[in-house]
Amino acid sequence: MKNVKHEKFINNENELHKAKNEFIKAFNFLVGILVMAGLSRKTALTLSLTPLTGGRASTKNTSNTFKLNYPNLLEALEHLENTWEDYLQALRKQITGPVIVGVSRILCEL
Q1: What radius of gyration, in Å, describes the C-alpha atoms of the chain?
Q2: Angle (nearest 5°) at CA 79 between 75 and 85
Q3: Is 103 helix (H, G, I), strand (E, B) or coil?
Q4: Residue 83: per-residue pLDDT
Q5: Whole-prediction pTM value?
Q6: Fewer beta carbons within 10 Å, N or C terminal of the chain?
C-alpha cells in the first residue's frame, strides 16, 4: 500500500527544488546581464532585488540612468518576478501554517 502523504510530500519537495533552481538561474542571469552592461556587481545585485521588493516603477529610470536596453531589462525583470512567484507557490505547498516572506528594502538602498 502506497503512502500517499509521503508521495505528495516528495512531489512537492521536487517541485520546490526545481522552482528554487529556476529562480536562482533567473536571478544570476539578470545580474550577469547588468554586470556585462558595465554595472558593478553591487549595483547589479541591488537592481536585481528591485522587483522582489515592489520597486517596479523605477525600471524605466534605471534603464535611462545606466543606459540599459529598457525592453530587455523589462523582460528579464518579468522573468525574475515569475520565477519568484513560482518559488513562493511551491513554498506554500510545503508549509503548513502562517509564514511571512520578506525582503528588506534596506538591501536596495545600499
Answers
A1: 17
A2: 145
A3: coil
A4: 92
A5: 0.70
A6: N
Give me the half-sphere count of Cα atoms (radius 13 Å) on the Cβ side of residue 34. Answer: 27
Average pLDDT over residues 83-94: 87
Q: What does the domain layout of the chain look like in residue ranges?
A: 4-109
For 6, the grid coordinates are: 509521503
Classify burial at 68, counting beta carbons within 10 Å of its beta carbon; exposed 0-12, middle 13-18, buried 19 or more.
Answer: buried
pLDDT for residue 48 is more than 50: yes
Q: Is the pLDDT of residue 9 over 70?
A: no
* Mean pLDDT, residues 58-79 taken together: 84
Give 100: exposed, middle or buried? Use CB within 10 Å, 0-12, 13-18, 19+.
exposed
Residues 6+ apart with CB under 8 A from 44: 30, 31, 34, 35
Amino acid at 12: N
